[in-house]
Recover the amino acids of this structure.
């Protein structure tokens, strides 16, 4: 859905349960998340949480841009 104007809390709530690691796929020890724009960090946080829950020990994130105020 559309994310414009949503707060971090609203974005996190909208992502609850939406991101998971495919069952049966072995988790790597380390992972890198790539995002185009980080606005509130909710997507990165949800993805990192799913990876950690799957057993990934270290998660890094890179983005092309951050929105002002981040």
């Amino acid at each position: 859905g559309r994310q414009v104007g949503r707060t971090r809390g609203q974005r996190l709530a909208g992502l609850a349960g939406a991101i998971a690691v495919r069952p049966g796929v072995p988790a790597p020890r380390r992972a890198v998340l790539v995002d185009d724009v980080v606005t509130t960090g909710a997507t990165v946080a949800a993805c990192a949480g799913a990876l950690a829950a799957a057993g990934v020990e270290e998660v890094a994130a890179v983005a092309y841009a951050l929105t002002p105020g981040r």
